[in-house]
UniProtKB/TrEMBL annotation:
<dbReference type="InterPro" id="IPR004164">
    <property type="entry name" value="CoA_transf_AS"/>
</dbReference>
<protein>
    <submittedName>
        <fullName>Succinyl-CoA--3-ketoacid-CoA transferase</fullName>
    </submittedName>
</protein>
<keyword id="KW-0808">Transferase</keyword>
<dbReference type="Pfam" id="PF01144">
    <property type="entry name" value="CoA_trans"/>
</dbReference>
<dbReference type="InterPro" id="IPR012791">
    <property type="entry name" value="3-oxoacid_CoA-transf_B"/>
</dbReference>
<dbReference type="InterPro" id="IPR037171">
    <property type="entry name" value="NagB/RpiA_transferase-like"/>
</dbReference>
<comment type="similarity">
    <text>Belongs to the 3-oxoacid CoA-transferase subunit B family.</text>
</comment>
<dbReference type="InterPro" id="IPR004165">
    <property type="entry name" value="CoA_trans_fam_I"/>
</dbReference>
<dbReference type="GO" id="GO:0008410">
    <property type="term" value="F:CoA-transferase activity"/>
</dbReference>
Amino acid sequence: MPKEASPERVRIAKRAAEEFRSGQVVNLGVGIPTLIPDYLTPAQDVHLQSENGLLGIGPTPEADEIDMDLISASKEPITMAAGASLFDSAFSFSMIRGGHIDVAVMGALQVSEKGELANWAVPGENILGVGGAMDLVSGAKRLIITMTHHTRDGKAKLVRRLTYPSSGLRRANTVITEHAVFTFKDGNMVLIEMHPDLTVDQLRDMTEASFDVSPTLKPLAVD
């Protein structure tokens, strides 16, 4: 049973699910990434990893199948896919730090126009802990950021420069919001997909970061 989420967050999760190739090991962060297992197809055959010690996350359990001893790093109830394995956190972080994660899908508080990521602390607010964010930023082979285009109070999350603490030197490879998909080429942010109800000028107005437009710009699926 898929988790309840806004149409915008579901749109982001569905689009992110299209990014994976068969056989990849994919770590899912907290927030929007936890929706992704419900939108993968069997043909994709990806192996979802949770940093608290599971390789082989399955779809969201039905209400009568929830076992709170079986949860993700986000403390969300999960299922185990056929062939899944369990291990301790030390082994899990050895996988992450050892470069065995093909893709990390993470949320973000800010992403700069150069792809720098901030996702663990807001200045002046209590810090719960960085968790595995910095390990994933440095250890995963590819970083996909899934986030809403704005904060709850309407501030842009795609910014010229970070004003929140950075999560590491590595840059994001792809950013997916409810309005657009961006990649990075030669240090510049590039728009590759956009909501069909928007114009490029409208997207620029709602995005603090500057970006180039791909000559093969495609519409973002909104179903």
